[in-house]
Amino acid sequence: MEAVSVLILGAGWTSQFLIPQLKNSSITFAATTRDGRESTIPFTFDPSSRDIKPYALLPSATTVLVTFPLTGEGQSKQITSVYRKVHGHTNNWIQLGSTGIFTASHWNDHNSSYNKESPRAIAEDELLELGGCVLNLAGLYGGERTPKNWVTRVAKTKEEVKGKKALHLIHGEDVGQAIIAVHENFSKAKRWLLTDLRVYDWWDLLQDWGADVKNAVVEAEGEKAAQELHYSEWVGELMVEGNVRSLPRSAEDLGRVLDSVAFWKAMGSWPCKGRPV
């Protein structure tokens, strides 16, 4: 099989944004799925097998992107070593992860403390030891993923709204842009934290989206289901009770918050998507 610049192991949600950008940039690529749909290569990572046959069906690549989670000790070593047994060692590896591992109580950046006992973090650390790069992503949105649709899952009462502080997001278009930037300017043995550079205040979003969310619940579940949802009123009352004078609240008042400036500065590329609607 002809060599490519980027091999995507697991052409899932991210690929709907990444693949068009690769095409527009004339970057050669190949992608895998479990079932080989849409002209992808059938491939399933089996952590219990060191059989080289599935890897022989993959092309050699400059950059190998792993979009599915690797967990615990051994999986990063296995997938890289078996691939390299077939295709050689001249390849860079990128693993997509989550910002959920970062544990500092206020500002977190790529150098902040994180949960080293997390199964995903263990596998990510192993990949870093092998010279790979980890991109820990904030909440993903774009396409069918709309943050406004998450509202009733995160808060359905005034008390639940009271506890909501910061939300961090990154659009799929910006994830694709970030992956290409790392491919072109590889960060060996580096963990990065990625957001869209914003710290969103849940109160601000709930006050803005409250009426739309309530209308959507009426359409989907009926009037009765929406009767107890009063997001705008709850936010206003909480502002009075907490002596909050304006929205959005300052990042200094939102508890655990994320800083991704270092990644975008290092790449010389900045996110292009603004506030979700």
What does it look like?
The chain contains 11 helices and 13 strands. The chain has helices spanning 15-24, 53-56, 75-87, 119-129, 151-154, 158-162, 172-184, 202-221, 223-226, 231-242, 261-267; strands at residues 4-9, 29-33, 41-42, 61-66, 92-98, 107-108, 133-137, 139-141, 166-167, 169-171, 190-194, 200-201, 257-258. Helix 1 crosses helix 7 (172-184). It has 277 residues and is an alpha/beta fold. The termini are far apart. 37% of the residues lie in helices and 18% in strands. The strands form 4 sheets. A 7-stranded parallel beta sheet has the order 3-2-1-4-5-7-11, sandwiched between helices. Strands 6-13 form a two-stranded parallel sheet. The protein is elongated, with a radius of gyration of 21 Å.
Gist of the model:
This protein has 277 residues and is of the alpha/beta class. The protein has helices spanning 15-24, 53-56, 75-87, 119-129, 151-154, 158-162, 172-184, 202-221, 223-226, 231-242, 261-267, and strands at 4-9, 29-33, 41-42, 61-66, 92-98, 107-108, 133-137, 139-141, 166-167, 169-171, 190-194, 200-201, 257-258. The chain contains 11 helices and 13 strands.
The amount of helix comes to 25-40%
Strand content: 15-25%
Calculate the mean pLDDT score and round it. Answer: 97
Q: What sequence of helices (H) and strands (E) makes up the elements?
A: EHEEHEHEEHEEHHEEHEEHHHEH
Unreliably modeled segments: none
List the helices and strands and how they pair.
Blueprint: E1 4-9, H1 15-24, E2 29-33, E3 41-42, H2 53-56, E4 61-66, H3 75-87, E5 92-98, E6 107-108, H4 119-129, E7 133-137, E8 139-141, H5 151-154, H6 158-162, E9 166-167, E10 169-171, H7 172-184, E11 190-194, E12 200-201, H8 202-221, H9 223-226, H10 231-242, E13 257-258, H11 261-267
Parallel strand pairs: 1-2, 1-4, 2-3, 4-5, 5-7, 6-13, 7-11, 8-10
Antiparallel strand pairs: 9-12
